[in-house]
What does this fold into?
Amino acid sequence: MPGVVERYRDRLPFAPGDPVVSLNEGSTPLVHAAHVSGLVGAEVWLKLEGANPTGSFKDRGMTCAVSAAVREGATAIICASTGNTAASAAAYAARAGLTGAVIVPAGKIATGKLAQALMHGARVIALRGNFDQALTLVRALTDRHPIALVNSVNAFRLEGQKTAAFELVEELSELDALCVPVGNAGNITAYWKGFREVRAAPRLLGFQAEGAAPLVHGAPVAHPETVASAIRIGNPARWEEAMEAMTASRGEIRAVSDEEILAAYRLLASREGVFCEPASAASVAGLLRYGPGGARRVACVLTGHGLKDPQTALDHAGAVVPCVPELDAVEEAVLGGTGAGPPEPA
Ligand code: F0G
It folds into this structure.
């Protein structure tokens, strides 16, 4: 499939002949979640945004932001990030031949995302501070220097991200509710824009982590904390737009605990065969905690791939079974304790 600019050019601010920097993002799988459906009593679908080229939904917006930057003659781009925006910006900058810089909270981004940003050749700045401080600083920096800011305060990011709503409506002609994790609040804003453009209006159910839930409390959180590092954000840039989207769709923005996030994270991997990152599991955690609220058909956005954050996975998964290279030992290791017993003789 072509990337989102080529696929939806008539609904995006790009003319034929404009430069397009793309990794053929978008067109991600939508899979039915049989187990979760049974638990909540609704038809539940999972939008696997981790199947994008850099492993998160950020690529939809980044193809637009970087294409627009190239069109405007930029030579450098920058973003603040909890990890995924950094990985995506670094990849698209590399592809476009631009200089990329990313500012991330030191020690607070998942290993895979850090590896990506470094591999793509971005300058990675580890800030002794949090995401909100990083975003304030990059905004000030880009006021002083001609560097394109590719955070979701950039309108092109939302234009690209709204294409996920188009795909959902194409595949599920009717959708009653959309569950989505909320951090800086760009994505929920973009979904609402996309749904409005195709005259769809599912209820938007946004979920924040309890320790980083400014939209739920109605006030910024100075020291946000959560295991879901991607949404460890205390003062979302798209605050008003997200609240408007929530109200206009008759939706809700609610909090889920880290325990609920991790339980959904494990359940998706072990029962649905879908490995997403912890922040992504907040959408399903919220659905499990609060229920579908009368919706018959629900989609949950799984925003990033589980491989982004191997350490959290290893910290919350079962242990490996050590074994010496002998048949008896392998037999015991494979069958022992499983209750499977030795195979029946033929
Ligand atoms: N899920 C994942 C995996 C994310 O990386 C993010 C945001 C969100 C959900 C929330 O989306 O910010 O539009 O409300 N990550 C940003 C980043 C902040 O820097 O990668 P949002």
Notes: The beta strands are 30-32, 43-48, 76-80, 99-105, 123-127, 148-149, 177-181, 203-209, 252-256, 297-302.
